[in-house]
Write a structure and sequence with these properties.
homodimer; alpha/beta; six-stranded parallel sheet; 12 helices
Chain lengths: 293, 293
C-alpha cells in the first residue's frame, strides 16, 4: 500500500490509476497536480484525488510514487518541474504511449536521478478522456509495458511493477525501442489510418451523403478517430521514425492489394483476406470495449 | 403480408429477412433455396424457412417475392436458374453489396423480364454469417438502399420497398452507380484497409508478439477483417473501378499525412485529426453493434 501517490494529470489514465489503488491495494493519500485547474477540481469532486497540490514541492514531500499521465510531449517539462523537489525515496513512472522520446526527455530533466524513473505504458484508454471517464477497473486484464532503464535498481522496478499489478494489470517488460516499434504497428499506425479514413471520406464531393450511409463496420473501423487530437499529434511526432516506417510498409501492402484488384486476381485476394481473417480471429478475447460515445 | 417468400441463401441476411417477416408483417410460407444443403437444413431446424425447395421450378410456383442473399458474383447464375420458372406476378430483389454489376448480370439473365427485378442493398450484416447468425431485428433502424431500374413499374418497386420496410428498415433510393461510389467509400475501402492492416502487422518479424500487445483500438479497427473472404473478394472485384479510385484517393491522403509527420508539422496534424474527430463524433448514433465473435 502506498502512502502518498501524486498523479500529474488525473484524467482517464491517471484518474483510473488513483481509483484502482483506492479500490484495491489502498493508498493513504492521492494528491493531484496538473495544468488544468478545472480538471483538478473535477477530479477532487469525483473523489479521484484527495486534494489538489499547492505546488510541486509541497506535493512531493513524503511521496512514494508519482504517476505522470499527460500527453507525451509534456513529460520532459513536467519532470523538470518535479526534479528539484524529488526525494531520494520517491519513484516516478509515466503512462506515455511512446517510450524512447520519454526516456530522452527524462534523462535531460532528471540527470543523476534518472534511476528513480521507470517508464511505463498501460495498453488501455480510448477515445474518452478526462476525470469523468476514469474508472477503478480500467486496467483489469490489460497489459502494462515497463521499459526499465539500466540505472533502475531492482527495488525501484519492483515498486512500479507492483503498483501496476495492484491495478489488476499484467506487466511485461521491453526495451523503449522495442516498445516503440511494436506500438507503432498495433496502435500508432491504426490511429493514423482511422483519422485518414474519416478525413478522406468526408472530403469527397458527396461526403456527407456517403457518411450517412455508413454502417457499423465503418463506425468500428473509425472509432479511434474520435481520440484526442493533441495526444495523437504528440505520439506520432514523438515516435516519428517508427510511425513513418509502419506507414511505408502499410502503403506497400496497399499497393500490392491495388495491383491484385486491378488485375482481378481473385484467388490471391481471397488468400490474403482469409489469412487476415484467421489472424484477426486468433486474437485473444478483448477486454470490455469502451462504450460508443 | 406475403404468401410465399423464397429465400435464396437463408444465412445472416436472407435468414434475418425471413425471420423479420415471420415476426412482423407475417408470411404464409418461406421456402429456402441454396447451394449448401447443410446450411438449408440448419435454416430449417432453426425455423427460419418452412421447407427446402425441391428445385427452382417448384419453389417459384405461386411465389410473391424472391430474395437473393448470396455473394454478388453468384447473382447472375442464380437469376439465370430462376428465369425459366419466374411467374409474371413474382418480384425478385437481392441484398448484394454492389449494384452496377448485379444490374448487368440481371439484365443478361432475365432479358425481357428485367422489370421484375428491383436491386437492393441492406446496410446491415457484419463479420458473422450463416443461419445461426440470423435474427429478426437485424434490419431494424438500418438503411436499405434500392436502386430501381427504368423497367420497374411503381407497383413492383412498391412491393420491394414495403418488404424491406416491413423488416423495420428505412428505405432510400439511389442509382446503381451512385450506390457503388458511395459504398466503395464507406464500406468497401474500409474492409480492404482492415484486411491490409492485419496482414501488414502479422507479416512483420515480431508480428505475433506485436499482435499480443494490441488493445481495444486495434480490435475495433480490424473487426471487419473477420468478414467473409469470398464475399469480399467478390465485392471488391465487382466494384473494381470505384474501389481502386477510393484506394488512390486514400493513398494520396496518407502521403500528405506522411509528409506532415516527416516534417514535424504538428499544427497541420492536429488540425487534420481534430476535423476527423469532429466528423466521426457527428455520425448519427450507431445501431447495436454486432457482438465480438
Amino acid at each position: 500500500m502506498l502512502r502518498r501517490l501524486v498523479v500529474v494529470g488525473p484524467g482517464l489514465i491517471g484518474g483510473s490509476f488513483a481509483l484502482a489503488h483506492k479500490a484495491r491495494a489502498g493508498v493513504a493519500e492521492v494528491v493531484g497536480l496538473g495544468r488544468s485547474p478545472a480538471s483538478l477540481e473535477r477530479a477532487l469532486a469525483l473523489r479521484i484525488i484527495d486534494r489538489i497540490a499547492l505546488d510541486a514541492q509541497e506535493a512531493l514531500a513524503g511521496c512514494d510514487l508519482v504517476l505522470i499521465a499527460a500527453p507525451v510531449a509534456q513529460t520532459g517539462t513536467i519532470l523538470a518541474a518535479l526534479a528539484p523537489f524529488l526525494e531520494r525515496s520517491t519513484v516516478v513512472t509515466d503512462a506515455g504511449s511512446t517510450k524512447a522520446s520519454v526516456v530522452t526527455a527524462a534523462r535531460a530533466a532528471l540527470g543523476q536521478r534518472i534511476g528513480q524513473f521507470v517508464p511505463a505504458h498501460p495498453i488501455a484508454g480510448g477515445e474518452t478522456s478526462g476525470p469523468d471517464a476514469a474508472r477503478a477497473n480500467l486496467f483489469e486484464a490489460r497489459t502494462v509495458i515497463l521499459t526499465p532503464l539500466a540505472e533502475n535498481s531492482p527495488a525501484v522496478i519492483g515498486l512500479v511493477d507492483a503498483a501496476w499489478r495492484d491495478c489488476g494489470a499484467t506487466v511485461v517488460t521491453m526495451t523503449p525501442e522495442g516498445h516503440d516499434t511494436a506500438l507503432a504497428a498495433v496502435s500508432h499506425l491504426p490511429h493514423v489510418l482511422a483519422y485518414a479514413l474519416v478525413a478522406h471520406v468526408a472530403a469527397a464531393r458527396d461526403g456527407a451523403r456517403n457518411l450517412a450511409l455508413a454502417g457499423s463496420g465503418f463506425r468500428d473501423a473509425t472509432r479511434i478517430a474520435a481520440s484526442n487530437p493533441e495526444m495523437w499529434r504528440d505520439i506520432v511526432l514523438a515516435n516519428r521514425d517508427a510511425v513513418l516506417a509502419q506507414m511505408d510498409g502499410y502503403g506497400a501492402l496497399l499497393e500490392t492489394l491495388r495491383d491484385l484488384i486491378a488485375k482481378g486476381d481473385g484467388a490471391a485476394l481471397e488468400a490474403l483476406f482469409s489469412a487476415a481473417r484467421a489472424t484477426r480471429n486468433a486474437l485473444s478475447p478483448a477486454p470490455s470495449a469502451t462504450p460508443e460515445p
